[in-house]
């Protein structure tokens, strides 16, 4: 048995790879088999992380395992899907037992936190990269898409923005600060917390949704385009964490929140009548603006002046696109 | 819009990415949505091909596009699944319009031949690699697995073996021959033909099945292990193509058939009573041996002597495992 076959067996023995509801056949045959309940659709999303492009080559494999699955699970949250399973395609330059053990531990922790079961994949030799495909279920016709926002809807987000993007200089060791602030930002980057409960609660309530991976302005642009509407964002209502404000100050913090990316917080639109039931259920819903007729995304200051930045670019770790 | 976003739009416009049965939502949102008919299960398989490991860096992108999807679709055939959709995670060192156009053309040809729709994926910058995840449907409980072969069953394959593995020295430009033979072998390597119709016809007939990717002996070993049986293979019944025999001669050709891999032909076990209905339906079924009590795989010559090679290794293109 070759070492790569040993790795396959290693993952097959992981706690997250054990049989469970919805998984009729797991790792070990030509295909896995999923059972999708009658009346439900299957939501599918694929993300690739490449060493040196999406994460530093020398990063902690435990954190990498967490992040690789977390960013994909966030796509399920954005559709209002209930997590079911995932596949892992892992390409490794060499086999290191310590690296694998730590990576699998991080992956497993995120998988169990998200109720995702590992059902298969592929392990190959080559430059380090990770492709995760996640599967979730959603009642037919109830998935949250980017199209559906209507004039009159509120624009909302599911929590503080900017921490993920703000953590980038820390991830790259370009800046440092006192430990507690640093740790809070790094945790948001390395251990994204997919808003799965919020996404499922938004079914039948939100008119559109996505997860913020490219920065608020860029991602709101996706909703505006898909829905054929204009989104007005009130700058002073954008929620930011104490860690972000403490580390960067207000202006630079706001820049991270608007354009930083990597937050994996949901952005969504709601008819105003739906707001109270969600907030009274204790769900994290922050109103940051509204939907009007037109197109594009406009940022407004407290006087209602257009203060939209000219560049809305986002920068993932060294990614060029 | 960055060049990688342009690539995503490029694939979204491909013929194989257009809407169709079973695809409730395709490319462009956080997740795609699949509709799985009531009473059916979803078969899922993921394969990664890495440049310099699974294929030469400088290979024809048209052929690579065909092969990348074909080898994954073969896993659906092995389960008896009906093809539905696939995702493509493509990592590219640079954006070349000519490369992409040819790759997409090959991918599209295979996708349309297999009735597979592109529903999503990811395009990233990095060392060239391709991860394809395929989806198919199969009536619940009817999927063909590796476990289920019983003593008394016949061992069969779906066609000539050895061409794919025999093509390797040609792929690597280590050998050449007259054009027609060369072309036949290279075509088997670069354009695997997943036995989808055969796989679906085997539902309810075969007791076990897989596709031969690692060589007949190694893959029969997987059936023997999963089913808890011994497989006897009659050497002189192994089908081989004229191209393989013409290029390699009988001994070396047999070696490619036994251990060469990359054939993507089905191997399966059947109760003898099921054979006639399959062959009379015109399906390619070649009996090459039988299932007995015990374990492991044994190769027998025409006198019934054990001539099992000591090494059953297979070699994919430069892969070490």
Q: How would you characterize this protein structure?
A:
2 copies of one chain form a homodimer. Chain A has 321 residues and is of the alpha+beta class. The first copy, chain A, has 2 domains: 3-139, PurM-like, N-terminal domain (60s Ribosomal Protein L30, Chain: A); 154-300, Phosphoribosyl-aminoimidazole Synthetase, Chain A, domain 2 (Alpha-Beta Complex), CATH 3.90.650. The first copy, chain A, is 34% helix and 25% strand. In chain A, the strands form 3 sheets. Chain A has a 6-stranded mixed beta sheet. A 4-stranded mixed beta sheet of chain A has the order 3-6-4-5. A two-stranded antiparallel ribbon of chain A has the order 1-2. The longest helix of chain A has 19 residues, at 61-79. Chain A is globular, with a radius of gyration of 20 Å. In chain A, 55% of the residues are buried. Chains A and B meet through helix 1, strand 2, strand 3, helix 2 and strand 4 of A and helix 1, strand 2, strand 3, helix 2 and strand 4 of B. Strand 2 (32-35) of chain A pairs antiparallel with strand 3 of chain B.
Give the SSE map.
Two copies of one chain form a homodimer.
Chain A: H1 3-12, E1 23-25, E2 32-35, E3 40-50, H2 61-79, E4 82-92, H3 97-114, E5 117-125, E6 129-139, E7 154-157, H4 163-166, H5 168-171, H6 179-190, H7 196-202, E8 208-211, H8 216-227, E9 230-234, H9 242-259, E10 266-270, H10 275-280, E11 286-292, E12 296-300
Parallel strand pairs in A: 4-5, 9-12
Antiparallel strand pairs in A: 1-2, 3-6, 4-6, 7-10, 7-11, 8-10, 9-11
Helix pairs in contact in A: 2-3, 2-7, 6-9
């Amino acid at each position: 048995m070759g070492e790569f076959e040993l790795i396959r067996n290693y993952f097959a023995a992981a706690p997250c790879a054990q049989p469970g509801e919805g998984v009729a056949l797991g790792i070990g045959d030509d295909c896995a088999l999923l059972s999708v309940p009658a009346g439900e659709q299957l939501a599918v999303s694929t993300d690739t992380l490449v060493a040196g492009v999406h994460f530093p080559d020398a990063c902690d494999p435990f954190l990498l395992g967490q992040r690789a699955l977390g960013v994909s699970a966030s796509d399920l949250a954005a559709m209002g899907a209930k997590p079911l399973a995932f596949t892992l395609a892992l390409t490794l330059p060499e086999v290191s037992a310590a690296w694998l053990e730590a990576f699998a531990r991080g992956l497993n922790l995120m998988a169990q936190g998200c109720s995702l079961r590992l059902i298969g994949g592929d392990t190959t030799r080559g430059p380090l990269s990770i492709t995760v495909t996640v599967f979730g279920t959603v009642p037919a016709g109830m998935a949250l898409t980017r199209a559906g926002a209507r004039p009159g809807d509120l624009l909302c987000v599911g929590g503080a923005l900017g921490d993920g993007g703000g953590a980038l200089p820390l991830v790259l060791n370009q800046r440092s600060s006192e430990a507690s602030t640093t740790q809070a930002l790094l945790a948001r980057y390395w251990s994204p917390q997919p808003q799965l409960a919020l996404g499922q609660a938004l079914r039948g309530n939100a008119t559109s949704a996505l997860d913020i991976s490219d920065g608020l302005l860029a991602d709101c642009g996706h909703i505006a385009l898909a829905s054929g509407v204009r989104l007005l964002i009130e700058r002073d209502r954008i929620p930011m964490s104490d860690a972000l404000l403490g580390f960067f100050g207000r202006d630079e913090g706001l820049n991270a929140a608007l354009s930083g990316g990597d937050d994996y917080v949901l952005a969504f639109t709601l008819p105003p009548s739906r707001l109270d039931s969600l907030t009274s259920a204790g769900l994290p819903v922050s109103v940051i603006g509204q939907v009007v007729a037109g197109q594009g995304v406009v940022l407004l200051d407290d006087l209602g002046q257009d203060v939209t930045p000219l560049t809305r670019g986002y920068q993932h770790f060294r990614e060029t696109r």
